Amino acid sequence: MSRRIPSLKALSCFEQTARFGSASRAADELYLTQSAVSRQIQGLENWLGCKLFAREKQRLVLTPEGESYLQSIRPALDQLESATLTVLSGGSESGVLTVAAPPTFGSRCLIPLLPQFRTKHPEIAINFISRIGMPDFDREQIDIAVLFGQGSWTDLEAHILHGEEMVPICGPQLIANLDHPPSADDLRHFPLLHIATRPRGWADWLDASGLRDIDGENGPKFEHFTMAMQAAAAGLGVALLPTFAIEDELKSGRIVAPFGPPKASPFHYYACCPSSRARLPKIRAFMNWLDQLDTASQLAGKTAGTKT
After folding, report:
1. pLDDT tens-place string over residues 99-135
2. Could you point out which of 110, 151, 162, 221 has its C-alpha 20 to 30 Å from the C-alpha of 268?
3. CA 53 from chain center: how many Å?
């Protein structure tokens, strides 16, 4: 007896429209026309005998029936995708694994550990790309992304990698004329250099140090850790940077950290993949390797030489 289920094309159109709140965006994602997506949704609504979407201003929102239906079918769609990808990979761990990570964390922390993974899994080739923030896993064909945050992202499986300790640094010339040993209180006399991805970095660090009267919100902004470090080394001000990003520069004396010890950030780095693909053999192999590696301990050992 045939199953009473709608077409996979209709379900895909429904899921992507719910994701974006737009039939036009769903069409772009599925490489269809907007009218084709609209017809699929209308056909699905007729088949089910209920409205799945309501229009609010310029956005399509799920009706209670639509929300209930989406939550019911999404696990099945995820399982179908996972099973299909496993078959396409031959059921083995071989293949190409694409990993995206923030440039500094990737180059200084994760890439040095990859030879260990290659030794254990020579059948898996790794493509490593630079990416800050949430990628589009499907459009960019990314298998695993390193994200910074609290570890709770919708539809993603997250494996904790490492925390982050932030410390103020500057070029030696910036404090050369002080007539006393530098302290955190001296930060009020220097420009504070900010990083775009850590907009509250200074405010949180100063608050934790009991220096609430120093303005931690304003100052020059830089997109990457490396840019902020270069600016600080050139004498433009004091940058607040993670210890893993500045170990070599501190050892060389190019920069100094005289304003106090590092302070832990409330956020961490996580290796993340879509939950629907977590059981794909090559992804499972990489995640299991990270779990067994105890990445946090190895990275802690790498940055233990940081001096203040």
Report:
1. 999 988 999 889 999 999 999 999 898 999 998 889 9
2. 221
3. 31
Is residue 92 scored above 60 in pLDDT? Answer: no
Q: Are 150 and 143 in contact (CB under 8 A)?
A: no
d(CA 24, CA 123): 40
Q: In sequence order, which residues have a C-beta less than 8 Å from that of residue 59 and are 6 or more positions away?
A: 21, 22
DSSP at 94: -
Residue 35 vs residue 141, higher pLDDT? 35
Comparing C-alpha atoms, which of 298, 292, 303 is closest to residue 117?
292
Q: Are 191 and 215 in contact (CB under 8 A)?
A: no
For residue range 220-251, what is the model confidence (pLDDT) as tens digits? 999 889 999 999 999 999 999 999 999 999 99
What single letter denotes the amino acid at residue 266? P
For residue 20, pLDDT beyond 60: yes
> Strands 238-242 and 156-169, how do they pair?
antiparallel
How many other C-beta atoms lie within 10 A of the C-beta of residue 233? 20
Q: Give the whole-angstrom CA distance, residue 58 versus residue 77.
A: 28
- In angstroms, rounded to a whole number, what is the distance separating the alpha carbons of residues 131 and 164? 18
Maximum pairwise Cα distance, the chain: 89
Structure token digits, residue 106 = 């990737």
* Spatial distance between the Cα atoms of 49 and 10, rounded to a whole number of angstroms: 14
Distance CA 147, CA 168 (A): 23
Smallest CA-to-CA distance from 265 within 213, 192, 203, 308 is with 203
Q: Is the pTM above the cut of 0.85?
A: no
Helix, strand, or coil here: 121?
Answer: coil
